[in-house]
Amino acid sequence: MADDPFFVGWQDNVPKLSRRKVLLAGAGLALGAGALGLGLGNQAPAPGPGVWDQGRKLAMTGTIYPEPYLHLLTEDLGGGPRPVFLVGQGKDRITVRPALTFTGAAVTGTMIERGEHAMMAVDDIYADPAPGRVMPGPETDLGEVVMTGEILDAKCWFGAMRPGHGKTHKACASLCARGGLPLAFCETGRCGEGKAALLFLDARGRAFGPEIIPLVADPVIIRGRIFEVAGLRQVRVALGDVVRL
Amino acid sequence: MAASFSLVGWNRFKRSYDFALILGVALFFAAHLAAGFLGAPAGQAPSELQVVIRASGAAAFSLLTFILCIGPMARLTPRALPLLYNRRHLGVTCFLIALVHAALVLLWYHGFSQVNAFISLLTSNPRYGSFGGFPFESLGLAALLILFVMAATSHDFWNAVLGPRLWKALHMGVYAAYGLLVAHVMLGAAQGETGLAQAALAGGSALLVAGLHIAAGRREAARDAAETEPADGWLNAGLAADIADGRAVIVVPPEGERIAVFRDGAKVYAVANACRHQGGPLGEGRILDGCIVCPWHGFQYRPEDGCSPPPFTEKIQTYRTRITGGRVFVEAAPQPPGTAIAPSLIEEAG
Predict the structure, then answer these.
(1) Domains, chain A, ranges and CATH?
(2) Suppose B80 and one of A6, A61, B74, B158 were both cysteines; which one would form an S-S bond, judging by CB atoms 3.0 to 4.6 Å apart?
(3) Which among A85, A74, A79 is positioned nearest to A134, based on CA atoms?
(4) Distance, CA of A147 to CA of B145 (rounded, Å)
């Protein structure tokens, strides 16, 4: 009979040498798995400075505008009127009674912020005459631009998801676009930055409809014009000037 | 073996094996999550759920890669055989981790909307005609379904019900699942990142698995190249004295299955080389306590008739042998499984 150890798994009398080797191998493999996890986890891309603090409720006053996306124009953030987009807790738009628009209103909820961009997941909206009507001021045409990048849903990119861009996020971005949430555009390589996104609108400065959904989260090249309204930059693009790469 | 079915036939080795498995999975997750959270730049914390999604996807893929390496490693060195013995526990664990990954993806990326999450999963990206834009989620879903079928039928109960051939064919689906998962990673996570970690993980792993299989295949091919031409229907298995006691040499006939020629003291037997359980190479096993023991999962067969000892019921083909001039000859034509054949005695050679 050959005297070299022969492993038989169902036998409890595994040869001693074999048992030591098996234990060493098991420990080595487990530690190797840990090292692999460490290496892969360390390679995760930085999501950027977006944040959604769902534990911190805020109240903000200003004027609600329904176009191009529902937003509160407020001076509560300092530095003049700034838009705070108003969304729900999920991936669908919220509606506001017309009586609450174009007049003083207060909004409560949690802030989703990324750099200078702000959005509120709304708990409640009610009339508040105190702020009066906050006006956006004139829009500034900053000229034509050609850019490559990605159409994002602003809620996720502002901080609801971190990271909230790229192909793995396409399904979510499609749902948000279908739900009528604000869209933004970030240039290739700058999606992780805080100031990189532009509000993405059609050539007439209105929100896109469902026709834009197939292009969301894909690499695209766009030709459009940049405008600045109430401190927020918009890129206005005709659908035909959005070309998938 | 097949006399009765218990959910898991626990023994000390299996418990140690599963302990190492759980420890490995726990360490992988702990390290991945810690690196994901602590390694992020200040003020750029990733979403907790997305870190878990990423970790579970990487864990399932890495574990499946490891599982697929075990087979060829066991062909290349018997030191890897202990890994193979309890491999199905790895497979079931892999499926469960993949299920967690899929469930969290469904909740996070496809939930919180008026659109049904399953409809979103299959329709949110309709670019099936594009390579770069291909909806990688459907590849992952297809792989998960295959892994589910394999996990659900991994118990020996299903091996007995379906029969070894069908069971084996069904479980070869793991290669299709792995291919789908490589594409799932390459067309998904790897595309969305500027770093190469995901691409390196998927591509490197696929190369490793392919390389090991090629190496094992070349070794098998080299062995098969030494196939024995029968003379009058008998195959030359070499000198009886060259067969180590309790072990076998493998003879490759021009047609049909390989044959394992065992020596047990002065007796020489020949049986089919493929174990009835999962096709393990019996000729690389040993004779212990009078039975041939498969090196993969320890299935036993009596060398004289190819039957598993009672109460087990498996049977393999047996072959007639003779010894002439110190050389062992095996009849190329097999006898029906379970046919008793008297051994050739080495003393007869003199």
Answers:
(1) 51-127 (2.40.50.500), 140-244 (2.40.50)
(2) B74
(3) A74
(4) 41
CB-CB under 8 Å, B286 with A167: no
**DSSP letter (8 states) at residue A158:** I
- Cβ–Cβ below 8 Å for B112 and A91: yes
Residue A102, token pair as written in the block: 């174009």
The radius of gyration of chain A's CA atoms, rounded to the nearest angstrom, is: 26
Secondary structure letter of residue A92 according to DSSP:
S
CB-CB under 8 Å, B245 with A37: no
Q: How much is the average pLDDT of B41-66?
A: 94
The answer to whether the beta carbons of residues B284 and B292 sit under 8 Å apart is no
- Number of neighbouring beta carbons within 10 Å of residue B299: 25
Distance CA(B243)–CA(B241), nearest Å, equals 5
Q: What is the DSSP string of B33-93?
A: HHHHHHTSPTT-PPPHHHHHHHHHHHHHHHHHHHHHHHHHHHHH-GGGHHHHHTHHHHHHH
Quickly count: other Cβ atoms within 10 Å of residue B6's Cβ.
Answer: 9
Domain boundaries, chain B: 12-223, 234-348
**Closest listed residue to residue B267, CA positions, set B188, B196, B349, B184:** B349
Kindly identify which residue of chain A lies nearest to residue B13, measuring between CA atoms. A9
Check CB contact under 8 Å for B28 and A170: no
Helix, strand, or coil (residue A216): coil
What is the least distance, in Å, from the CA of A225 to any CA of chain B?
27
Please give the residue of chain B at the shortest CA–CA distance from A190: B194
Q: What's the topology of domain B234-348?
A: Rieske Iron-sulfur Protein (2.102.10)
DSSP β-bridge partners for residue A184: A152, A199
Nearest Cα of chain B lies from the Cα of A206 at a distance, in angstroms, of 23
For range A198-206, the mean pLDDT = 95
Residues in contact with B232: Cβ distance below 8 Å, sequence separation at least 6, in sequence order? none
Contact residues on chain B for A1, CB-CB shorter than 8 A: 245-246, 286-287
Which residues are within 8 A (CB) of A78 and not within 5 positions of it... i.e. 6 or more apart?
none
Cis peptide before B311 (omega within 30 of 0): yes
Beta bridge partners of B307: B315
Q: Tens of pLDDT along A99-148? A: 999 999 999 999 999 988 899 999 999 999 887 888 988 999 999 999 99
Q: Which residues of B touch A53 (CB under 8 A)?
A: none
